[in-house]
Amino acid sequence: MSTASDIVLYNYAFSPHGKRISAYLALRGIEYALCEQPFTMPRPDLALLPVHYRRIPILAVGRDIYLDTRLILRVLESLPHVASPRLGASTGRDKFVEKLLEKYIIEGPVFAMAGGLVPVDVAQDPTFKKDRQGMLGRTWEQEELEEGRGECLNYIRNLFDFYESTIFEDGRHWVLGSQGPKLADIEAIFMLDFVDGMQLPQDVISDKIFPRVYAWFERYRAAVDEAKSKAAQPAVLNGQDAAKRIRMSELELSQTVFDGADPAGLKEGTDVEIYPADWVTEHRDRGRLVALSADEVTIAVESREAVEIRIHAPRTGFKIREI
């Protein structure tokens, strides 16, 4: 089984994407160390690696740093020497459902609509407003949030209804009809679980209106809580100790494939920068391009101690630019 010395998760407790990863780690029984991060910038712990990408969570496996939860989950699914079974689907049909859920919830409008339900008092906090300015195309002003709330609430209500009237209509307990939660459940539930904590109006979204979905919520939360209670608690590291542990590790999982016929025309060894395509594009990681495939890019960077660290990002949702 992987140990805490292999894996370091940079996270903060109420990140919906962070909860997605911590739930997977618990349900799979994978040990890890935790480096807790502040809710807003700056995050000097990441600069020690060095990583400029600002979104949370970030996962380190040895000296390989993985950005974006889509890639993080793929890496966790493929970890060697983990005794417990993978949570990913095993049949083509179920893999299709699982992947479609990931694409819709992450790459579709769900997160933007959920963001519109952030309580106004939270969004008016000066630190929050400054840090998230421009995120999801919003200024986070009170008038803007109040004007768009009805549209966002209706969209999320329709998503609850979609689950209620389709996948759970036959009485199943889990998305794929399994005996317990799988990766498909994590993909399907994490944003709804997030918005459920936002004091939604009971006459629009509640357990009385969507009893099957809320029963699924209860089963899922209970399963994650039980898994966490049985697992070893993650060692909590400060930024210095986390960076030191990573620097002293190996490059064990690094992607090594380079697609010489990639449509972007990028060449191995070129100095490039990678950054999110949609927001905070000024937070760019620069390094030597060492691996490239249809769905992953890897660059090599050096720490202040002249130790090579590799940063991995998915292709979808990220830009790669030659320097």
From TrEMBL:
Residues 117-228 form the DUF7962 domain. It comes from the Eukaryota. Residues 9-79 form the GST N-terminal domain. Gene3D superfamilies: 3.40.30.110. InterPro entries: DUF7962 (IPR058268), Glutathione-S-Trfase_C_sf (IPR036282), Glutathione_S-Trfase_N (IPR004045), Thioredoxin-like_sf (IPR036249). This is Uncharacterized protein. The lineage of its organism: Eukaryota, Fungi, Dikarya, Ascomycota, Pezizomycotina.
